[in-house]
Amino acid sequence: MLDDRSLQESVLNELVWEPSIDVAHIGVTADRGIITLTGHVENFLQKRNAEKAAARVRGVRAVVEELEVRLPFPLKYGDEEVAKAALNRLDWEVDVPKGVVAIRVENGWVTMRGCVEWRFQREAAERVLRGLTGVVGIQNEITTKAHPIEQDVTAEIDAALHRSRFDPRTITVTAEGGRVTLNGTVPTLADRHVACQTAWKARGATEVENNLVVA
């Protein structure tokens, strides 16, 4: 495991390496594998990309993201303009059901509400708005519908994890109702995210509690 100073340098190098991020005003600290990002960026997409970049560095166990979005003065837009642009983008996104997602914008913060069939539709709605000019933050309150639970959902998730990159002996999957719980260990923070996304693909999953530890 890298010491804090080496891990801090690795994360900084990764942020510099990522062309979609302006690192001029980003600070990085490391404490026993926990990375904290501070400072500010020019748009919400850079904020999310910085978090992703830090998470994919080997040795990072968790990321605390405290970046602020500060829009360049000439690019500031009113909430009404942001709301109209957001609804337009959602209408063009094939993974988001038409007319399901409602939008509220306040001081650049976008709140999304509605109910969709699948988790990937909820994530798609947020993804298409991250790069929208004028957005400083997104609150995703979209819910997913409950589906009938497959009796062998635990075995199906185990099989899906095994088809991916994971040793099923290191991850324990349990399910009760629509709630799926993951326990065990994974080698990287990125693997923790992938395991959670895999569990969400199970029919009937309405909640995934990710207790996986990076070790």
Automatic annotation (TrEMBL):
<protein>
    <submittedName>
        <fullName>Ornithine aminotransferase</fullName>
    </submittedName>
</protein>
<keyword id="KW-0808">Transferase</keyword>
<dbReference type="InterPro" id="IPR051686">
    <property type="entry name" value="Lipoprotein_DolP"/>
</dbReference>
<dbReference type="GO" id="GO:0008483">
    <property type="term" value="F:transaminase activity"/>
</dbReference>
<feature type="domain" description="BON">
    <location>
        <begin position="78"/>
        <end position="146"/>
    </location>
</feature>
<feature type="domain" description="BON">
    <location>
        <begin position="145"/>
        <end position="215"/>
    </location>
</feature>
<keyword id="KW-0032">Aminotransferase</keyword>
<dbReference type="InterPro" id="IPR007055">
    <property type="entry name" value="BON_dom"/>
</dbReference>
<feature type="domain" description="BON">
    <location>
        <begin position="3"/>
        <end position="71"/>
    </location>
</feature>
<dbReference type="Pfam" id="PF04972">
    <property type="entry name" value="BON"/>
</dbReference>
